[in-house]
Amino acid sequence: MNANLLRNLSFHARRLRFSPTPTVTAPTCFSSRSHAPDKPHSLVEDISDEELKRRVAKLQEGDAEAIPSVFEAILQRYLAGKPIEADQELMRGILGKWTLSEDEEDESDSHWEEIDDTDNEDGV
Residue ranges of region Disordered (predicted)? Predict the structure, then answer.
């Protein structure tokens, strides 16, 4: 009888040890999307189109320190509830200014080919 009692005792002890603790309320999961998607986030300030254009212009002038500022503005606009589709025309304008003409592309390609040829001559 002692063996049976010990066996049952250890069985119940294991079961109790691994069972989750009972809670009064169901666990609550938190999500960043708990608010309505149409409502802008109250803590994030929306960046205007003009402000974003100003930051991008600063980046295009060659100021490498403007890169974090541009990314911050884009993120703030997204967090403020402005859909990314609203910025498509703005992005087309930004990217359109950065495209190379055919002459510049040919010059760039020939420059890289010259570098590659020089590397091959050194390696042989």
Answer: 99-124
